[in-house]
Write a structure and sequence with these properties.
The structure is a single chain. By secondary structure, the protein is an alpha+beta fold. The protein is about 25% helix and about 35% strand. The chain has a 6-stranded mixed sheet. A hairpin with a 7-residue loop joins strand 1 and strand 2. It is globular.
């Protein structure tokens, strides 16, 4: 994998999300893909589970959102992508990190998502006492 191949994969991922149905998933993901929607979530396994998750998680192909992805790193068959996603007219705004592993055919075998929304607790102590230290 190289940066341009990962960028093309991410573009196809977005196109698949914006398309009706889930037929395009088999072009993007290996049949036994592992898909972890957050660092502590139990991974989904396989294309049928992923298709069900996609259909439940979106409003359909007409869903309005913007996505600004950036490939942060590529090392062999592993890539890290940062994606900013915003849904206009909703408070939904995300900054994500994706850890992706690919097979030799360019299909994703592992998708690990680290989503973060504004105001989401991040484990940092922002009390005035902690900030004075």
């Amino acid at each position: 994998m190289d940066r341009s191949t990962v960028e093309a994969w991410v573009s196809e991922y977005e196109r698949a999300w914006r398309s009706p149905g889930t037929d395009k998933l088999g072009d993007l993901f290996a049949p036994e893909v592992g898909y972890q929607v957050s660092p502590w979530a139990e991974p989904l396994t396989g294309l049928p589970a992923l298709a069900k998750f996609w259909e439940a998680g979106r409003d359909g192909p007409d869903e309005t959102f913007s996505m600004e992805p950036e490939v942060v790193a590529v090392d062999g068959l592993t890539a890290v992508v940062r994606a900013e996603v915003e849904y206009p007219g909703q408070p939904a705004r995300w900054r994500d990190l994706w850890v992706l592993r690919f097979d030799g055919e360019g299909r994703c075998t592992w998708f690990e998502e680290w989503p973060f929304a504004p105001g989401q607790p991040d484990g940092q102590d922002r009390s005035s006492e902690a900030l004075r230290s």
